[in-house]
Amino acid sequence: MFKVLKRMSKKEVGYVLVSLIFIVSQVYLDLKLPDYMSKITMLIQTKGTLHEILKEGSFMLLCALGSLLAAVIVGFFAARVAAGLSRKLRRDVYYQVSEYSMAEINKFSTPSLITRSTNDITQVQMIVAMGLQLVIKAPITAVWAITKISNKSWEWTTATALAVVFLLVVIGIIITFAMPKFKIIQKLTDRLNSVTRENLTGIRVVRAYNAEGYETNKFEKANDDITKTNLFVQRMMAVMMPVMSLISNGLTLAVYLIGASLIESAVGIQSRMSLFSDMVVFTSYAMQVVMAFMMLTMIFIMLPRASVSAKRIMEVIETKSSIKDGTKTAGTAGVEGTIEFKDVAFGYADGSEDVIEGVSFTATKGQTVAFIGSTGAGKSTLINLIPRYYDATKGSVLVDGVDVKDYSIETLHDKIGFNPQKPVMFNGTIRSNISFGDTGHAPLTDEQIWQALDIAQASEFVKKLPDGLDSEISQGGLNLSGGQKQRLAIARAIARRPEILVFDDSFSALDYRTDKTLRDTLTREVKDTTKLIVAQRIGTIMDADQIVVLDRGKVVGLGTHKELLANNDVYQEIAYSQLSKEELA
Ligand SMILES: Nc1ncnc2c1ncn2[C@@H]1O[C@H](COP(=O)(O)OP(=O)(O)OP(=O)(O)O)[C@@H](O)[C@H]1O
């Protein structure tokens, strides 16, 4: 929690300090009220004039108004500090996560990162807003009120001390039982998010497989768990409030009982009067002490959950990306467009088995290099090493003759047009999706966008849309077909005008004819661009300059279609399972 608070800006610290002045004034004014009450009581008993009573009453009213004003000002500053801090935290989390490699994102999981940047930050915001008012006010009030009553009758003081002890016991019980529950609430929120997210993103599959019941059970379990935990905590709170009232009312009663016996045993009207006035004042102060402890209890209730949240936020902020940015902003002259893998190995987790081993090959400028292999052979993993979504654990990946680790990430990504296995579309228009991403080139003209769409075989369907390039694309491209999304994603990569184009199974949703036309157009129109193509279909890669055959993470064949068909068992097996001898010839 402390680490989170340290992230406050100087201005916010300034607000806290100013609030401090107003909090002290508020406590001072609140504790002044009983004095006026005492004076008014005395005046009434000693038959003071109406003018005198009104005068004291006006001061009392002014104090109350002053206290109210101070409370409003503190509330205003507290809200500003809390909102400012949470904005900063959201920003810090966002920027940190943007720098994460896939390894860190997988480590936290997407639903957890979403909970951390929303719900967890809200918890911290709430505790800061309330804490600023209560954490500072409660102890000041308690100490100040105690000093005010300590010189009165010891019987009354003892009664107050007993009430405080009771309060501490209640707080202790709450901390012991509720705190562990609060700690798990955030984890349960993560789970609920994860289950809901999975169900929503996979809704079509869920329906198609009549798996609503199964998914509902999963959701109900997550929902029940969080509800039970919340109920437990709320019940504790529900018991706590009446117990607190009981203690404070019991204290008032005790003060009056003690007062009655003290007054009875006092001699003379004057001393009785003074005792009565003391009793009224004491009750007020005692209430302030009890109130202060109640405020502290509120903090104790909220603090554990907020500190768990703060820890979860700091975990994200303090986790550094395993991908360290390099410094180079240019490749070696004369070898532009070259990609070289030198004895590369990679495993997903520390100590886990390598899913890629001893991979070596070179693709030169303008070449098309294809990767083929059975499911899980490591094709996607291999090409993910080029834009450094993961870093090779052994060997090196060179782009333009320079190790990818030595490039600044921005330079490296500017060289690559990467097309992941699942095409990703963003909320916006076709234009915004194609001209997505700053490449350092001038902004794309409509002509360039249409050219990219032409190459990607997407212009035909875009032209048919009523708003052409300005047609809306909904989040995730839900209003597009799988093939349309793939073509737009391919157009986006081409439009970047990169040195290297990487297609991870990007032609799978295209029919054979479109697949062939697209590849022919690519070869013709972007002939100087190096193309790396991962594919399942032999037809897609037959014309490649080089084909890398992968099997269980190892290169088991390297050559042209003809060479591999003649002498590579794995390639032959894949090829003959898809096409006839005549088609392959
Ligand atoms: N994020 C990940 N964490 C751990 N293991 C992974 C991860 N992604 C892939 N793997 C494992 O790495 C191996 C290679 O997977 P990869 O996705 O590279 O195969 P692929 O050849 O592209 O398969 P496909 O053709 O089905 O896409 C598989 O055994 C897979 O289980």
TrEMBL record:
CDD domains in alphabetical order: ABC_6TM_Tm287_like
InterPro entries: AAA+_ATPase, ABC1_TM_dom, ABC1_TM_sf, ABC_transporter-like_ATP-bd, ABC_transporter-like_CS, P-loop_NTPase, Type_1_exporter
Transmembrane segments: 12-29, 59-82, 126-147, 159-179, 238-259, 279-303
Annotated ranges, domain ABC transmembrane type-1: 17-305
Main location: membrane
Keywords for the protein's UniProt record, in alphabetical order: ATP-binding, Cell membrane, Membrane, Nucleotide-binding, Transmembrane, Transmembrane helix, Transport
Keyword Cell membrane part of the UniProt annotation: yes
Protein localization: Cell membrane
Pfam families listed in its UniProt record: ABC_membrane, ABC_tran
Alphabetized GO MF terms: ABC-type oligopeptide transporter activity; ATP binding; ATP hydrolysis activity
A single GO cellular-component term on record: plasma membrane
UniProt membrane topology term: Multi-pass membrane protein
PANTHER family with a match to the protein in the record: ATP-BINDING CASSETTE SUB-FAMILY B MEMBER 10, MITOCHONDRIAL (PTHR43394:SF1), ATP-DEPENDENT PERMEASE MDL1, MITOCHONDRIAL (PTHR43394)
Name of the protein described by the UniProt record: ABC transporter ATP-binding protein
